[in-house]
Amino acid sequence: MDSSKMTAETPLSPHADGLHIGNSLTREKERFVPINAPYVGMYVCGPTVYSNVHLGNVRTFLTFDVVYRYLLHLGYKVRYVRNITDVGHLTGDTDDGEDKIGKKARLENLEPMEVVQRYTNDFHDVMRVFHILPPSIEPTATGHIVEQIGMISDIIDNGFAYESNGSVYFDVRKFADDHDYGALSGRRIDELQNQTRALEGQNEKRDPLDFALWKKADSSHLMQWPSPWSEGFPGWHLECSVMSTKYLGKTFDIHGGGMDLKFPHHECEIAQNIGAHGGDRPVRYWLHGNMLTVNGRKMSKSEGNGFTPEELITGNHKLLEKGYSPMTVRFFMLQGHYAGTLDFSNPALQAAEKGLERLMSAWGTLNTLQPVEGPEACPDLDALKNRAYAAMNDDFNTPVLIAVLYDAVKAINSMASGRMSVTAEGIALLQALFADFAHDILGLEPEMPEGGGHDRTDGLMEVLCAVRAEAKANKDWATADLIRDRLVELGVQIKDGKDGTSWTFD
């Protein structure tokens, strides 16, 4: 999938009109109508680059990779912005604690930008491993300090922020007088007041609910910039408001991120955008990916069940029976809808591994098919394509799409065995189905593990088929049947035809 090949003249797919998105803001599934079709603006909150990428990050960015791919497939011209947070995200995730990157730099005796570069590189490496496309623009918080200071000034001028002791805070109650603060997360002002704990430095605030737009830095803070209020640094929430509106406009189509960002991060973004620019709905569609669990429990360091992408691939973790390839992990994640929780377990990963092999094997068989006449009529392949679009148009429902592809797998295997007829046109339709949906939209690629991968598998199967053929020639039916039966137990179907023996995975 190459977005650079898309032009303003590329027509939209007729299926584009049917796309519906589960909007976190309205809690309804809404028809997708871009502000300025065929152009679409999408912003996704990127990583805070102070540590290695975790699997929750991978799932979130995989979710929006599929959204991006499908919008491109439909013919939209997508500007996809995904930021890098390299300052302002404090350890308390609100206004307390030390800057996460500064803390890491201090612990490792590094410059903060060394930490940023190391973990940005790691993030990009992991995205490539899992075949996640890069965004159109990947801005950094430190690259937009001037714009952040400008937005703070606008919010102050509009009466929604105030300076206190060199710091600047957003006035939540003033904003809530005329706007629905908490609409995205479903939280209400009175509830938030009861939940807000007293934090160091909050005596600067008029209200504990207020959040920082600019923080005055003390001499120990490693990253600080001059501003009209003090030497300091921007608040975490501000960067996304600045970078999304700079590159996508004051009102744009899609904003995404993990479910954990709904509050306070995304709620504060909405308030900042309205506080600076006015209006009442700066983002048309909010999408949130759900969390990961392991064997039914929340993935976390304290539980001892959190593992990195590297551990998942190598199998070097006490909870893993083996390593799983990146494409297996990608396929596993696609088998769950992005808005639902996803539970990692060895049986589930192993089932995904077998399922992916079955899909890839049929895809390979498809490319060798020749038109044949068979006793069973070819299925309605146009119906398969329409079902595939219906699945993706139903809030990017990848599990249902995979079920459609499995139906195509059954048809391919029947065609390969001669049980089902297929025309040249039918083969072309199936090839387009796999190219469009399995490859371009789901992002699935054949993998070549160390040692030859599928080439090695093909070689081993050729040897087994040859041994079985020799046994049959010698009328050693017991050996021939034994080989066939053992392979069936492993999910391999042997097919004897007039042109010799072929095999496929179930």
Describe the structure.
The chain has helices spanning 55-73, 100-108, 112-129, 145-157, 172-176, 189-195, 236-248, 262-277, 309-314, 326-334, 346-366, 381-393, 398-416, 424-441, 454-473, 477-489, and strands at 20-23, 28-31, 39-44, 77-82, 161-164, 167-170, 211-216, 232-234, 252-258, 283-289, 292-294, 297-298, 342-344, 492-497, 500-505. It has 506 residues and is α/β, with parallel strands linked by helices. Strand 11 and strand 12 (297-298) form a beta hairpin.
**How much beta, percentage-wise?**
5-15%
Large-scale geometry = elongated
CATH second-level architecture of the largest domain: 3-Layer(aba) Sandwich
Q: Which fold name is given in CATH as the topology of the largest domain?
A: Rossmann fold
Looking across the biggest beta sheet, what order are the strands in?
A: 4-3-9-10
SS-derived structural category: alpha/beta
Termini separation comes to 29 Å
**Helix content range of the residues, please?**
40-55%
Oligomer: single chain
How large is the radius of gyration? 27 Å
Number of domains: 3
CATH class of the largest domain: Alpha Beta
How many strands, what sense, and barrel or not for the largest sheet?
4 strands, parallel
List keywords for this structure.
single chain, 506 residues, alpha/beta, Rossmann fold, Four Helix Bundle (Hemerythrin (Met), subunit A), 3 domains, four-stranded parallel beta sheet, four-stranded antiparallel beta sheet, 43% helix, elongated
